[in-house]
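User: Before I run my own analysis I want an independent prediction to cross-check against. Here's the chain; please return only the structure tokens and, at the end, one sentence I can use as a sanity check.
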Amino acid sequence: MKKSYIYISMFLIYIFLNINIFAVSTQKIDFELKSNEIALTFVDDNLLISNNYSNDFLILNKKGYDLSKFKTNNLGIILLDENTSVDIEYENKYVLSNDLNVNNVNYNVDNNIVSLKYKDILFCIYIDQTAVVNNSKNCNFLYLYNTSDVKHINVNEKLDIIFLNENASIPNYFLEDIYSKWVDIYDINKNNYLTLKLDDKEYTMLIIPND
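Assistant: Structure tokens:
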């Protein structure tokens, strides 16, 4: 897939996204997506999936999350477990299952992989703690949600980006192997929001400071 990168400072947000930022508490981030675009934003290890008319929040981390900086109209929540309690207001609630389709995104769970498919693009979330990841052969994007000590990832020719927690440990020899295959790695941390913006032909990485 064709890719591009944008680092969004408080000033550049206005240029690239046409968002007027006066104060974080009064002005929410709106990606102003086109009808053929979606955005996946990492929020406290969880995933906010946005399109031009709604937002869905896939809750992986039950310990806490803050959506206050984002415009979340028509918010739905997607849970791994129907017994998960949430403390945010929402309009629709879904429990993750195979062939769950929500707002043109198809969700599946198989062999410790939660997959989100949009058109022909596959975003995978690895939810196991096993250090060897060998079942991501069809993924375009891979998020290592619960793996802190990575030994090996079976990198395929389709894979563009690996997302992982900033505290995750990866051997240097494996990092060199990943970069040699032109796979990018992004750290998820509390200083920035990472957003993967997708359409049917290309993707763009947005990095938004969490000020």
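Sanity check: The first strand starts at residue 2 and ends at 7.
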